[in-house]
Design a protein that fits this description.
The radius of gyration is 18 Å and the shape is globular. By secondary structure, the protein is of the alpha+beta class. A hairpin with a 5-residue loop joins strand 4 and strand 5. The chain contains three helices and ten strands; from the N terminus they run H-E-E-E-H-E-E-E-E-E-H-E-E. The protein has two domains: 30 residues; 121 residues, no CATH class. The strands form three sheets. Strands 5-4-6-7 form a four-stranded antiparallel β-sheet. It has a three-stranded antiparallel β-sheet with strand order 1-9-10. It is 24% helix and 35% strand. The termini are far apart.
């Protein structure tokens, strides 16, 4: 009986992991492309390798005075220009979205508002090619779920070996 429980637990775990992978792949291939302007931060982590810490101009526009310490999650609405670059419009409410508006999920932890990720990892020694990054390219689902797919330069060229 114990072996059966262990096997069933293992199978269930594999199913959950594979469903999550499938959902992320669907988001990556079918999600709407949204470009968020970066506010530069560039630390290095000896334990994790090279990475670029990410902060976004949209966050600063939406939450100029982040002084509360409560953790919360929410949605905000951004407007996309003709190049796909987002600018803060409003916190999400019951107002219907225009065709050039997208809803983004955010979470607040330790007075920091974060989207899908707050870091972009790259191979050691590749930092120079990412120093010119000005935008984070996200794939966004209809419900605001986000997945960082690339960093882009000021002229919107994809950085790194894609």
């Amino acid at each position: 009986m114990r072996k059966l429980i262990v096997v069933l637990t293992g199978v269930l775990l594999l199913v959950v992991v594979n469903v999550t992978i499938y959902q992320r792949e669907q988001l990556r291939t079918q999600g709407r492309v949204v470009l968020l302007e970066l506010v530069p931060v560039d630390p290095r982590s000896l334990m994790q390798g090279d990475y670029m810490a990410l902060n976004f101009a949209v966050v600063n526009a939406a939450f100029p005075n982040r002084q509360n310490t409560e953790s919360k999650d929410g949605l905000l609405v951004v407007t996309l220009n003709e190049r796909g670059v987002a600018s803060f419009k409003r916190l999400a409410d019951t107002t219907p979205l225009a065709t050039n508006e997208v809803v983004l999920k955010y979470r607040t932890r330790n007075d920091q508002v974060k989207f899908a990720t707050n870091a972009f990892f790259f191979e050691e020694g590749q930092a120079q090619q990412y120093q010119v990054a000005r935008y984070g390219e996200f794939r966004v689902s209809a419900d605001g779920e986000m997945l960082l797919t690339n960093l882009r330069s000021a002229d919107l060229a994809v950085l790194g070996g894609v």
